[in-house]
């Protein structure tokens, strides 16, 4: 079994990777440092957004990033707020990129 990174460590590493690619991002909700789940909101700065969450696939025994919500930014924000209502330990990282880059599909972040 692979050791799991703490949420804080993963978020800090993700923000560093985004900075190296000149993609602005910031933490909008600081969850539990050790075991909080992470949502990533991609804001394309045109009124549209997507929210990504990690989901476990029992068939492949792996975790992958999937779209939780997409569409008008306000609707995505409502979906994120609903998730925060269920889970106070949830992290939310907002990425702002007109080209839609989020790096979640890159090695080290894709699982």
Which short descriptors sum up this protein?
hypothetical protein tt1805; 5-stranded mixed sheet; alpha+beta
Describe this structure in words.
By secondary structure, the chain is an alpha+beta fold. Helices cover 25% and strands 34% of the residues. The protein has helices at residues 7-20, 73-86, and strands spanning 25-29, 38-43, 48-57, 62-72, 91-96. The protein has a five-stranded mixed beta sheet. The model has no long low-confidence stretch (mean pLDDT 92).
- The structure class reads alpha+beta
Oligomer: single chain
Low-confidence regions:
none
Number of domains: 1
Name the overall outline.
globular
The CATH architecture comes to 3-Layer(aba) Sandwich
Q: Which radius of gyration do the C-alpha atoms yield?
A: 13 Å
Assign the CATH class: Alpha Beta
Query: Biggest sheet, in brief?
Result: 5 strands, mixed
State which percent range the strand residues make up. Answer: 25-35%
Per CATH, what is the topology? Answer: hypothetical protein tt1805
Q: Give the distance, in angstroms, between the N- and C-terminal Cα atoms.
A: 14 Å
User: Percentage of helical residues?
Assistant: 25-40%
The largest sheet has its strands arranged as: 1-5-2-3-4
Q: Determine the number of helices (DSSP H or I, runs of at least 4 residues).
A: 2
In sequence order, what are the helices and strands, one letter per element?
HEEEEHE
Mean pLDDT: 92
Number of strands: 5
The CATH fourth-level homologous superfamily = Protein of unknown function (DUF1491)
């Amino acid at each position: 079994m692979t050791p799991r990174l703490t949420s804080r460590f993963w978020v800090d590493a993700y923000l560093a990777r985004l900075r190296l690619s000149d993609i602005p991002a910031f933490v909008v909700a600081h969850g539990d440092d050790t075991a909080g789940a992470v949502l990533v909101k991609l804001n394309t700065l045109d009124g549209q957004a997507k929210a990504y969450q990690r989901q476990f696939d029992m068939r492949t025994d792996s975790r992958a990033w999937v779209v939780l919500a997409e569409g008008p930014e306000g609707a995505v924000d409502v979906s994120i707020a609903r998730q925060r209502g269920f889970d106070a330990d949830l992290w939310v990282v907002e990425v702002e990129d007109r080209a839609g880059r989020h790096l979640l599909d890159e090695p080290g972040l894709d699982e």
